[in-house]
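Provenance

Sequences were taken from public entries as deposited. Structures were produced by running a predictor on each sequence independently, with no templates supplied. The record for Pyruvate, phosphate dikinase from Acetobacter indonesiensis is shown for reference.
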Amino acid sequence: TKWIYSFGAGHNEGNAGMRNLLGGKGANLAEMANIGLPVPPGFTITTEVCSAFYDNGRAYPSDLEAQIDAAMAAVEDAMGLRFGDANAPLLVSVRSGARVSMPGMMDTVLNLGLNDETVEGLVRSSGDSRFAWDSYRRFIQMYGSVVLGVPHHRFEDILEHAKRALDKEDDTALTAEDWQDVVKDYKAIVLRETGTPFPEKPKDQLWGAIGAVFGSWMNPRANTYRKLHDIPASWGTAVNVQSMVFGNMGSDCATGVCFTRDPSTGENIFYGEYLINAQGEDVVAGIRTPQPMSAERATPDQNPMEKALPEAYKEMLNVRSLLERHYKDMQDIEFTVQSNKLYLLQTRNGKRTAAAALRIAIDMAQEGLITQEEAITRVPPSSLDQLLHPILDPKAERTQLARGLPASPGAATGVIAFSAEDVEDRASKGEDVILVRIETSPEDVHGMHAARGVLTTRGGMTSHAAVVARGMGRVCVAGAGSITVDYKAQTMSVSGHTLKAGDWITLDGGTGAVYLGRVPTIAPSLSGDFSTLMGWADSVRRLGIRANAETPEDAETARRFGAEGIGLCRTEHMFFGPDRIGHVRQMIMAEDSAARARAIDALLPFQRDDFTALFRIMAGLPVTIRLLDPPLHEFLPHGEAELKEVAAALGQDVETLRARRSALSESNPMLGHRGCRLGISHPEIYAMQVRAITEAALAVSKETGKQVIPEIMIPLVGTKAELDLVRKASEAVIANVLEEQKAELTYLIGTMIELPRAAITADQIAESADFFSFGTNDLTQTALGLSRDDAGSFLPSYVEKGLLPQDPFISIDREGVGGLVRMGVEKGRATKPGLKLGICGEHGGDPLSISFFEEVGLDYVSCSPFRVPVARLASAQAAL
Ligand code: PEP
Ligand code: MG
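Predicted structure for Pyruvate, phosphate dikinase:
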């Protein structure tokens, strides 16, 4: 088997299409070398080696060593240096690189190949002994912690101690001799911590590093990241071994990270950060504050690369447009300048905020780089959520505490927590939390996920906190250096304020501002790029998009977001208002029909007003109103006080009522007296609702001159007979109202398909239905025999164990529940070819489920108002 693919060393064996085998980094290094860009020579050990390694109890394939030796020899030839040569040693980096990038999750070792002998060679070949010894100590530090497992802070402590003893503040002030002493102490700590001396043989070092990268694939933080991002463990990681180039060999050297466009806003500017005389990880580690690439937006105290290294900068400008045109997407590029010569170390499609994804997609389509269809596929529908999130109310009073970098946009307000654990604790109690750290590391990822926003006091726009927060859509302000964080005391202090854990702060990730307390927020604007993309999406999608809404506010939000109607108005949600709930309880608890009739009569005007408001807002768009479907227990009077209240209103004694309440309470309300069953036992309830709907439709038709066509929906139907009964009764009520008012009305009466029996007998049910709407919440519950309300206690572990691919209440179970939907569609249309079909369960707003609904040929999906834009985009993508 071929386990190794070379790049930049004479011939390139890989290309960008080989991402699965070579990982993203390896494939793109090969691709850059292919298109003639300066890539330091190296080779990629394939992801298949990783799989083989784990399949064989952490043992390598027997022919791997020979292939690595051969590839190493090719790199040596290309560089004109020998690995382990005492005079002019070749040094390499060893990095992980999976199919998709997992920022900061995997381990990297730089400067590999140094030992007591080769360091002298590096002194000679570089002519810079300070640089050589600095590189050596960096290597021991990285290798020691990454490969040998010596705690990182052991090395930090030694360094701090040395600096204090020498009375030097900056690392750069340390001389070659100083670093020699540090190296001695580093080696001593390695010996003490591991019981073995630091490995001197470069080849041993190489195998150790390779093993550490493969080992890191299964470390806890990589596992967490994979879980959060649905990355299968079976993909494995590749290992890239690449000859070192040095950004820390003097003032004509530098290292940097840049984006071909602004990853926060998407603006078409060259965006990036670099550090002079520094090595790779310094930029992202947040230890020194990086400088901007371009002079245009630099402040006077900054030192942009454009001024400091004009030649290399010009070359980077070239690389920027070349790579963007080649990949047709925004690139995230790592580079190093060694003695004014530019090298590229990585390129990949850059992570970006939702706002940036949107702007870049639209701009690139308008620039002609991609098509409109491609632009539609470039924006992940679920990321639109971020754009719909609030921003700070510009009129609100505020006290600014500090300003950091605007690392990930949006506004977030919450209580302070200083550790990932504390964030999770507080968030699990329903608090909004802001994670405040000096800097973040991969150990903090779970806390960042649970937080509303992240604030760091150190690090730049490409620091760990910034990159991860952007990827997750969390608000982030990074590098707010004027804030002092004291983990021990659990406080942060800034400009005279000292805040404790649990105190409120507000972040504006768009400006980098940090405010005291809670600052009110407002809804974002939906014009510009957002409406352009939505327009493009609307022009290609086939599915209609409706919203689940019952309040006027929700209906208005839904329209603002582009809903084409209401697909589900849950009338039981209208019954909880303080002016209504009493009547509702009386209606349910009444013993005789006269008392029930009084309660129902009292509800009629409320319902008529409710429907009138909805019809007005929806202005002629279809509105599907579902007749009452409560799990009865939700309405029963709970405490003693409520019981007394209802008793008084009904003129009955409390004891009778108490008995009635226990008679009505069910052991399994979800499968009990709900849906059309309730309408069948108490026909007067549905009669009142149908009357209210009819009267409201007639009134709004008259008032606006636009015909309102109400769609009346019967819930939880299991048999055609049930639907027939309710339909007949409803038609009689409508006929009565029309007779009273001497008016005419077009209306539809349809049903929800939310029980397996309804799906299986959909051909019969369709005979009596004008439309179907799949209630995939109940259909999931009943098909899987999985309680909607109780599944939370064990379902997550099912997903974790891989027994279910995802939570079936979030993303439809295609094979099972989806099979019932497909059957319902086919049988329904077999009876009535033109039968209108929709879905109104939560799945209506889930992109994966939407692609399934497109596939089975539904007419529309209906989802909560805030998901409407998501559904518009997801259905466009599903149609392409
Ligand atoms: C459903 O069951 O999918 C549905 C939309 O109805 P509800 O969630 O109100 O039961
Ligand atoms: Mg339901």
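The chain has 34 helices and 33 strands.
The CA atoms of residues 556 and 617 lie 7 Å apart.
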